[in-house]
Amino acid sequence: MTGMIDRRYRQKILTCIKIITIFLVMTAVIAPFYVSVIYALKDSSDISVNRLAWPQHPTINNFVKVITENEQFITGYKNSILTTIPAVLILMTATSMAAYVLARFNGRFYRSVYMIFVSGILIPIQCIMLPLYLNFFRLGLTNSNLGFVIARTGLQIPISILVVTGFVKTVPLDLEEAARIDGCNRFTMFWKIVFPLMKPVNATQLVLNTLFIWNDYTTAVILLRKVESRTLLLAQMAYFNEYTSELNLAFAFFILAMLPILILYFCMQKYVVSGIMMGAVKG
Question: Looking at domain 69-279, which CATH architecture does it have?
Answer without folding.
Answer: Orthogonal Bundle (1.10)
